[in-house]
Amino acid sequence: MDDAAALVEIEAIKQLKARYCRHLDTKDWTAWRGVFADDFLSDTSKAGGKLIRGADEFVAFTRKGVGERATAHQVHAPEIELT
Description:
The protein is mainly alpha-helical. The relative contact order is 0.18.
């Protein structure tokens, strides 16, 4: 991959990360679901959490846990390495 293509990919990752935060913080659950692949897997079991298979299940789990409480996710100075 050349440098220009790499920069385009890195920018796409930054945009996705920003959408993730914005949709979660505005509680736009339909749009937030759109940032995940259907086969999304969340595994926080090593930290005492649980294994959640599938984007719909993860969004439902998060929506139930967060509810309508205000959240303010901020992302700064990303360190992105393409492999």
